[in-house]
Design goal:
By secondary structure, the chain is mostly helical. It has helices spanning 11-45, 51-57, 60-79, 83-93, 98-122, 128-151, 155-178, 190-204, 208-218, 223-249, 254-274, 280-303. The protein has twelve helices and no strands. The chain is globular.
Amino acid sequence: MNVESPSQPSITNVSKNNIYSSKLLWIGIPAFLLVGLASILIYNYHALFSVDKLVAGLNQDFFIYLLIGVFAQLVDGTLGMGYGATSTSFLLSVGVPPAISSTGVHVAEMFTTGASALSHYKFKNINKRLVTYLLVPGVIGSVVGAYLLSDVIDGKVIKPFIAVYMIVLAVMIIIKGLRNNNVKKKTKNLGVLAVFGGFMDAVGGGGWGPIVTSTLIGRGRDPRYTIGSVNAAEFAISFASGITFLLFEGINGWQVIAGLIIGGVVAAPFGAFFVNKIKRRPMTIVVGLLIIYLSSRTLMKAYF
């Protein structure tokens, strides 16, 4: 009598299950968080968004913020850094206060980094292990930084220091653009790097990319997977700091947030597509010089 062995799942079925689980993790969870956040914001702040107020708010300032969002996301998606530094430099230069600027940038980044992470996932630019190492420490640093800026630090006092910090980030970006390919080295203290990057990103309105991406690429990691992975982790970092800003600041300057979100979401797929298409060195240098110019203007306005 022939005894049939219990049927085993085929390799194809196992592969399909893995793909389904991966999509649930990388697409389902971010989508759920963003839909939940949008629902809460609409419920809590719907009084701010009457038809008359929305129509009145769709003015020249709104479209300036939208263009800032488009440009900043193209920079970030292509270079793996610079969204916060670029958008914050522009916002400060047009007179947006630091707390509102950082709130707007990080609430917008909840959506733009989510779109960017999905785009990088689609183009297979993500190293999941690297994302795991960066996630929790980066979230801790960002929450602490967001709390300090929202509830402890005086925005008027810190504004010139943020401008100086932006200049430092710009120099880092330019150095990255001029640097030749690096020999790969073992990256130590990823947790410390992520905590520092998340903290400075929240307090300064940017820095996660320039600090984390430039350090990892400087140690010889593959730019494609480093950019995709750091951008994917940035979704959690931005979400944590954005929620913290909303708890302590509420929604101030909705035009800034809406303009950055719409512009960034529209530009995110293009940034992920161009990551391997564009000549990175000249663009990196141009972006760095632009941030230095804008931050220098902010310093001049603060002291003269």
